[in-house]
């Protein structure tokens, strides 16, 4: 487990870059935190560090945004805040093997309908910045966390 204080947007960007630099070939990240805790900001920083250009939208209303990565793979950014039942994920056309990176906000709303996390990141407002707690949830997550 790793605890960090992210004092500003630059620190969040730096964490996204560190995560991107050590990302395993296939990874699932579950992002936890209250509204405004920085989940979308961290996801955006990670995607940008992986070579996503152009606008990176928060999937608050679309539920999922798909992004081509510089290495030719695809990342999915999900925001499940608005789903009422895990069965709603069936209508999103999500195939576990199709994306090399899953960034999932509000994963607790999906129950067992999501692939298990490799890395869990809990974000919280901490003074003028944010606190981040990173926890490995799989062997790949342990290797990833140790590398950053």
Automatic annotation (TrEMBL):
Coiled coil: none annotated. The keyword Kinase does not apply. It is found in: Cytoplasm. One of its GO terms (cellular component) is cytoplasm. Keywords: ATP-binding, Cytoplasm, Magnesium, Metal-binding, Nucleotide-binding, tRNA processing. InterPro entries: P-loop_NTPase (IPR027417), T6A_TsaE (IPR003442). GO terms for biological process: tRNA threonylcarbamoyladenosine modification. One of its GO terms (molecular function) is ATP binding. Gene3D superfamilies: P-loop containing nucleotide triphosphate hydrolases. Pfam families: TsaE. Its main location: cytoplasm. The keyword Metal-binding applies. Belongs to the TsaE family. This is tRNA threonylcarbamoyladenosine biosynthesis protein TsaE.
